[in-house]
Amino acid sequence: MNHSKHLDSSIQILKRMRGDQSNELGSEQQRALGKEIDRMKKLKKQRTASRDEIYRIVSEVAETVSKIM
User: Fold this and answer.
1) Beta-carbon count within 10 A of 10 CB
2) 44 and 57 in contact (C-beta within 8 Å)?
3) DSSP one-letter code for 46
4) Is 43 exposed, middle or buried (0-12, 13-18, 19+ CB in 10 A)?
5) Which residues contact 4 (CB under 8 A, 6 or more apart)?
6) Count of C-beta atoms within a 10 Å radius of residue 40
7) Is 1's pLDDT higher than 60?
8) pLDDT band for position 2 (50/70/90)?
């Protein structure tokens, strides 16, 4: 599955959120974003990820981000 350009843009958005000085994220929140970035990178490397797995992981990442913000 070739979803890498969409995953790349999502990873970049999460990195900007984590590195933005004006967002006032605590260290625990930054760590959580870092873990989600790692999950997205691992998903990008998977060649045989099913559509359900992609949706599940993206949904979990979105849930984590919504709790942080």
Assistant:
1) 20
2) no
3) -
4) buried
5) 44
6) 19
7) no
8) low
The per-residue pLDDT for 40 is 92
What is d(CA 12, CA 22) in angstroms, rounded to the nearest whole number?
Answer: 17
How many residues does this entry show for the chain?
69
Cβ pair 22, 51 in contact under 8 A = no
Average pLDDT value over all residues in the chain = 86
Give the amino acid at 50.
S
One-letter amino acid of 3 = H
Domain residues for the domain of 49 are 4-68
Number of domains in the chain: 1
**pLDDT for res 37:** 93
Q: What does the pLDDT average to over 26-37?
A: 90
**Which amino acid, residue 43?**
L
